[in-house]
Design a protein that fits this description.
With 400 residues, the protein is an alpha/beta fold. It is built from 16 helices and 16 strands. 45% of the residues are buried.
């Protein structure tokens, strides 16, 4: 019998998200799962600040105001150093230098108390750069996870990425992507022999309601109300069917720049009693709504992965996503869900009509989607991530 491998000491880095999560909900779920496997996980989450922030970015200013310098979140120590943020222009010039300067004193102090085995940064441009600088200072390997916009905005087909972003992608000791789509964009810049893996995000099954009451013809969409989420197209598809199926309903969850436009269109269509815009909603309530809905529809583009799809599937919804997006790793069209061209109103209408009209015929597809989604746990994610860590640590030790 082999000797059990020792627990690892992990430093995670991700900037503080401007939301109600402790720093970034999916990174925290991974950190909790790694801690559950016995590892010592510490998080440094830099909080962006800038002159006249309350006036220029009130939401971000509110996040900074209510975020402490340190907190223990589900047993994980989280440090929140403040760092200068200067928007896209500043990022292009300085990258993650301000973040590294803010994080490094804390990281070095913690490293002196007990050596870190690895730094794990999430998101490539700023956080990845900061993680690379901190890992070099601590003389440990860097694992980097890319999630979506950090690749889709900076690694565009037919265009050469910024040199610094190429360097980050190349120099990370291990690079993980949450989907094959993202991996395909970054892997060509990694070079041969580099540790490069797809490690999909997970779903917290403990939060999914046990009893599903998926009401027939109840359609749900969840996301930021902005053009690429295509909620306006989902609304138009639903409106075409509303007269034929008077019991059908549509719920749009989220906030964003298109809220007024969507509300006006609902009034124009005379669907105020059938279409609900809820605004922002607590995560637990979103999951409860999923368990009460028949279809989850989000035919959006620019999706590196999309945890909401697997949450909906795990809650018993039939999920409708877009072709050629990150969710193709999970949804197989006509097998465990549906894939349509992004923003294609006609295609969304066809899927809705088919499920509305022949709901019982899709019982096996719904069950397959639920089963497949429930395999994508954070425990599985942590197991795969740990394997990447150990491979990177071993390769780094051989180089030294």
């Amino acid at each position: 019998m082999g000797t059990p491998e020792r627990p690892l000491r992990i430093l995670m880095m991700i900037h503080r998200q401007a939301d109600h999560s402790p720093y970034c909900f999916y990174v925290h779920e991974q950190a909790k799962a790694l801690r559950g496997r016995g590892h010592d996980v510490t998080v440094i989450s830099c909080v962006g600040v800038m002159p006249m922030m309350r006036r220029l970015r009130p939401a971000q200013a509110d996040v900074a105001r209510r975020t402490p310098a340190r907190a223990d979140v589900d047993g994980i120590p989280v440090y929140y150093p403040r760092c200068l943020t200067m928007g896209n222009a500043g990022e292009r010039v300085l990258g993650g230098v301000p973040m590294a300067l803010a994080a490094l004193p804390q990281a070095m102090r913690l490293d002196r108390e007990k050596r870190f085995d690895i730094v794990h940064a999430h998101m490539l441009p700023r956080d990845g750069h900061a993680g690379l600088l901190v890992a070099k200072a601590l003389r440990v390997p860097l694992a980097l996870t890319v999630h979506g916009t950090d690749v889709l905005q900076y690694f565009l087909p037919g265009r050469v990425p910024w040199p610094r972003n190429v360097r980050i992608a190349r120099e990370a000791d291990a690079l993980m992507a949450v989907s094959s789509l993202l991996l395909g964009r970054v892997a060509p810049y990694r070079g041969g022999g580099k540790i490069t893996r797809v490690v999909q995000n997970g779903v917290d099954l403990s939060l999914i309601p046990e009893q599903h009451a998926n009401r027939p013809r109840a359609v749900l969409s969840v996301g930021t109300l902005k053009p690429r989420k295509c909620m306006d197209r989902t609304l138009e598809a639903f409106a075409r069917l509303a007269g034929e199926y008077p019991d059908a309903t549509l719920t749009l969850v989220g906030m964003g720049e298109m809220q007024a436009q969507l509300c006006a269109r609902v009034r124009e269509l005379g669907l105020e009693s059938r279409v609900t815009l809820t605004g922002a909603m607590a995560h637990g309530e979103v999951l409860r709504r999923m368990a009460q809905s028949d279809l989850f529809v989000l035919p959006s583009w620019g999706e590196g992965y999309g945890i909401v799809y697997i949450e909906a599937m795990a809650a018993g919804c039939i999920a409708v996503g877009a072709q050629n997006e990150g969710i193709e790793d999970t949804i197989a069209d006509g097998v465990n869900g549906f894939l349509v061209p992004a923003g294609d109103t006609d295609a969304v209408e066809r899927v809705m009509r088919d499920v509305f009209e022949h709901r019982d015929a899709y019982a096996a597809l719904r069950a397959r989607g639920e089963r497949d989604a429930r395999l994508l746990t954070w425990e599985r994610n942590a197991e795969q991530t740990e394997a990447v860590y150990r491979e990177a640590i071993g390769a780094y030790a051989k180089k030294r």
